[in-house]
């Protein structure tokens, strides 16, 4: 089972070797989050289009990154992002970031999910960063129920969460070499994960250790 979801937010022309490593790791990847400009940008980027095509050619899911601002961003803007990822990069899925966790915002995300499926999305991931209300499991293929530092992750008391058939994902940064993130993720119900050494405001500009190890 492929267990790595890779959010790698660097341009292919700046980090070509790293993107090559991602493509070569295809059998281990659940998917790759494509993020040209904190979203799809204002126009197609040929370098990202080429990477997306190569990933699809080796059967890797390409998920377009879109910020929802915890339910505050106008739904039409999010839907426009999804359409641009589909039309410009052939993305077959969506990674919605900064997703609210409470039931009060559920209707907003339910409408977004309907729009995503209508736009041809085949994989929908919601990044809550923490366990959301269980109702969200009805909307997505993947729920990110943790995003944060390794220090927080290893000291966090596990929170029981039932996602049904929806898979849980944990995104951990500031991770030292040989930290048992994958094992810890499994014990906490996550079958997808990503562990990177990056820290600070831009941790997702570093590759997962699993890919660095080759």
UniProtKB/TrEMBL annotation:
Lineage: superkingdom: Bacteria
Protein name as it appears in the record: Spherulation-specific family 4 protein
Pfam family name, one: Spherulin4
PANTHER family, A to Z: 4-LIKE CELL SURFACE PROTEIN, PUTATIVE (AFU_ORTHOLOGUE AFUA_4G14080)-RELATED (PTHR35040:SF9), PTHR35040
Source organism (scientific name): Streptomyces phaeochromogenes
